[in-house]
């Protein structure tokens, strides 16, 4: 039971698996979101060990800066944060026309450069990584809605729903593994505030992930949310 992050990562995969099974129309969305999320698994070294210091399988984080758990976590998180708005409000993500791959690659490249630039700024300014990551996610998400005003509601509602799901998973795991957060998170260096046993920073992070997750795919792939029955 010492591999707490591994257990937590498996738990975060459950909502995405359920959505993939129940909503065939969102399967291609989930597969693409998983591919787009993979690069973020390599950023664990930014969080380890200032923000937290869990044990990794094969001690990979100490050896190479990231671990298997990081890939499981980002893929599971992307799977449900990018689709949960559509599921809860009975929407699907619909493309009116085929978009050229070059156009998609251009938008991905622009978002990647902006994300890297904001991350470098927060490192230069010594902003704690968890708060800097939140600001980056919200900044990029709000920038997208400045271009796509139709995504404002999905941003906020997707963020809220993702936070509820994230909190529920953390709460269940914390009941199964008491003091999981106290054992692995360096919370004294941050707010040290808990919401029913879950660190406030984790809930802020989950809102940011849900916000960017809900607008990322429609923006990059030029899609929109429509009522599920309209295209089913």
Structure keywords:
single chain, mainly alpha, two-stranded antiparallel sheet, 4 strands, 67% helix, 5% strand
Ends distance: 44 Å
**Into which percent range does the helicity of residues fall?**
55-70%
Overall pLDDT:
87
Instruction: Count every helix, treating DSSP H or I runs of 4 or more residues as helices.
Output: 12
Sheet with the most strands, sense and barrel status: 2 strands, antiparallel
* Structural class estimated from helices and strands: mainly alpha
Which sequence of strands runs across the widest sheet? 1-4
> How many E strands?
4
From the alpha-carbon coordinates, what is the Rg to the nearest angstrom?
17 Å
- What global shape is seen? globular
Query: How many distinct domains?
Result: 1
Low-confidence stretches: none
Question: What share of residues are in beta strands?
Answer: 5-15%
The succession of helices and strands, N to C, reads HHHHHHEHHHHEEHEH
Task: Explain how this protein is built.
By secondary structure, this protein is mainly alpha-helical. The protein is 67% helix and 5% strand. The protein is built from twelve helices and four strands; from the N terminus they run ααααααβααααββαβα. The strands form two sheets. The protein has a two-stranded antiparallel sheet with strand order 1-4.
Give a brief rundown of this model.
Helix content is 67%, strand content 5%. The chain has 232 residues and is mostly helical.
Topology:
Elements: H1 4-22, H2 27-37, H3 44-47, H4 60-64, H5 68-81, H6 84-88, E1 91-94, H7 101-124, H8 129-147, H9 152-176, H10 180-184, E2 194-195, E3 198-199, H11 200-220, E4 224-227, H12 228-231
Antiparallel strand pairs: 1-4, 2-3
């Amino acid at each position: 039971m010492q591999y707490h992050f591994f257990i937590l990562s498996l738990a975060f995969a459950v909502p995405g698996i359920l959505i993939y099974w129940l909503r065939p129309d969102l399967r291609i969305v989930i597969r693409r979101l998983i591919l787009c999320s993979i690069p973020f698994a390599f950023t664990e070294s930014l969080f380890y060990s200032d923000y937290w210091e869990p044990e990794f399988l094969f001690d990979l984080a100490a050896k190479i800066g990231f671990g298997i758990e990081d890939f499981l976590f980002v893929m599971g998180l992307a799977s449900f944060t990018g689709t949960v708005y559509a599921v809860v409000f009975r929407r699907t993500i619909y493309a009116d026309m085929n978009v050229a791959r070059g156009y998609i690659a251009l938008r991905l490249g622009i978002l990647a450069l902006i994300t890297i630039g904001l991350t470098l700024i927060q490192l230069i300014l010594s902003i704690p990584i968890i708060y800097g990551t939140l600001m980056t996610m919200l900044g990029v998400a709000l920038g997208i809605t400045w271009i796509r005003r139709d995504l404002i509601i999905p941003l906020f509602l997707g963020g809220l729903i993702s936070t509820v799901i994230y909190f529920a998973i953390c709460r269940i795991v914390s009941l199964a593994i008491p003091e999981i957060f106290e054992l692995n998170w360096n919370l004294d260096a941050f707010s040290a505030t808990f919401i029913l046993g879950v660190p406030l920073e984790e809930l802020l992070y989950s809102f940011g992930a849900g916000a960017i997750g809900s607008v990322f795919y429609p923006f990059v792939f030029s899609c929109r949310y429509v009522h599920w029955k309209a295209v089913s």
